[in-house]
Design brief:
alpha/beta, Rossmann fold, 6-stranded parallel sheet, homodimer, Dihydrodipicolinate Reductase, domain 2, 6-stranded mixed sheet, 336 residues, 32% helix
């Protein structure tokens, strides 16, 4: 019998934690024991995994003693505080927060893109930002084929990327707006119902932190600081799945036909690109799927070596939980 | 007493027609008589203008005999059929449809940008596409200051741009989706509630027609085919106001500070750009306003001569009805 792992989920009651549980079960990840960790407030909650009910425990520094693998999505400050303890306990941690992403000693990994980097880990492997993951899964085959000079990207990000409370808040705001009642903002900085908006916080250069993550993470994952990345990240009133309008300036010309062919042959990518048949990826269709969907691939009408494309993926799955589980599967040589 | 005009509205019962009526009234346009024209189906409907009730009449080729100014927004095929008759009747027509926009004999006009072109009209002046208008009002001052090589734009367009029926359809779809009922599509090609999507039809090169309008109209209005324009036009579940993520590559470097200063001094533009104070234009705030709002002005982190900006305007007002009325006001020297 192949090896099984003692798995702990940090942030087990959150939107990503819930997706982690679903994905571990769907993929039949070899779990010998499962520890669901969360804040004191959430301790005692019941979650189901396979045919069992698991009681959520409070996360403490003693939580890692009988654990092999930690999947963390409880927020950056929690990861910063607790993952060093997990490392001391010889756990491998896959961290879904931004806490260690830019740490030079921590690999930042998308399995289809740079799995080689994962093997140099020192106990922690960082999962990139959701917007970065889907963009780079779609762009890596193009980068390998013809090189990339510059990326201009505008995102259409779903509210679930900001956590489960934001899903409920969009429902509440929408209901209020349709009924002519005042719209309340608790988690969003602005009305999100029937609006598009920006996330806080902003960086010093007037980009949002989310935008600068896309710049820095692209450089780190591709190991190429020469790629220009110009992002605008926008939140839209969609529950699940992020969409991205990506303009890419390649080093050598790549036709739309060739780009489609290259992407069709690429791992983790589904090309859905027959506009005459109304086939292009849309958030509501892609939600719940595991792949990165690419459509609207067309040659840039403004420059010689340019392509436009539309990239959609489920931000909680490929953008977060699934990518983390895939890293663990490959690192531990778990057959899929 | 200054001159008054006999005005006819074609498409008086539509979303743009309704905005036209509001704007004529708000701006106290010198109307001596008002004819509301629509299809046979809508004839007999009652609309109010100032303190009067006006009965909608069926549009026929005899509708223009006692008319000076036609404001047309009944669809491209209706404009193609009827505006030549208006010309024969010596009317001036401002056409909000795409029917004559690319006709070399028809000026395509944004008053703040190229009012000079309007004076060469031969009876018809075309109003540009809503997405083009707000983009070029924001970019003209930058074009004049430092030149523009290339524009990469992704839009976040409200459903009212597709007509009044789409506003109702978004309400219905949203209610269905929140109640777990099947979502019906009659006017949209796909689910629009909690989704982002593309408009039909597509052009031969896999761009949408809306995208290619932004390319061709930019060239015509700026009288400069050398500007590269690479658009992705996207419909979002917002009722009113279009937002645009614009990346512009200028001929000479322009700092964000200088761009803000230039735009602040520009006609028709409101700069709303203090992200630290949560000040940037958002669709729900801009809806109902007359200006083009520009925010998130920041230097491109990927190239030397680049700027990113976020441009929002009410698509039914500045993007359609207001722009048409402004053209008429200036052409007829109506004091404002």
């Amino acid at each position: 019998m192949s090896r099984e792992y003692r798995v702990a989920l940090m942030g087990a009651t959150g939107a990503v934690g819930t997706a982690m549980l679903e994905i571990l079960e769907e993929r039949n990840f070899p779990v010998s024991s499962l520890k669901l960790l969360a804040s004191h407030r959430s301790a005692g909650a019941l979650k189901s995994f396979k045919d069992e009910t698991v009681v959520v425990e409070e996360l403490t520094h003693d939580s890692f003693e009988d654990v092999d693998l930690v999947l963390a999505s409880a927020g950056g400050s929690i990861s910063k505080e607790f993952l060093p303890t997990a490392v001391k306990n010889n756990c491998i941690s896959i961290d879904n927060t931004s806490a260690f992403r830019m740490d030079p000693d921590t690999p930042l990994v998308i399995p289809e893109v740079n799995m080689h980097a994962a093997h140099d880990h020192q106990g922690i492997i960082a999962n990139p930002n959701c917007s970065t993951i889907q963009m780079l899964v779609a762009l890596k085959p193009i980068y390998d084929a013809v090189g990339i000079n510059r990326i201009v990207v505008s995102t259409y990000q779903s509210v679930s990327g900001k956590g489960g409370a934001c899903i409920n808040e969009l429902v509440d705001q929408t209901t209020s707006a349709l009924n002519g009642r005042p719209v309340k903002c608790e988690n969003f900085p602005h009305q999100m119902a029937f609006n598009v908006s920006f996330d806080w916080p902003f960086a010093d250069n007037d980009y949002t932190e989310e935008e600068m993550k896309m710049v820095h993470e692209t450089h780190k994952i591709f190991e190429d600081d020469s790629i220009g990345v110009s992002p605008t990240t926008v939140r839209v009133p969609v529950f699940y799945a992020h969409s991205e309008s990506i303009n890419v300036e390649t080093r050598e010309k790549l036709s739309a036909v060739d780009a489609r062919e290259i992407l069709q042959a690429s791992e983790g990518v589904v090309v859905m690109d027959q506009p005459a048949e109304r086939q292009y990826p849309l958030a509501t269709d892609v939600a719940g799927s595991d792949s990165v969907f690419v459509g609207r691939i067309r040659e840039d009408v403004s420059i010689e070596n340019g392509l436009n494309m539309w990239v959609v993926a489920d931000n909680l799955r490929k953008g977060a939980a699934l990518n983390a589980v895939q890293i663990a599967e490959r690192l531990l040589n778990i057959p899929k």
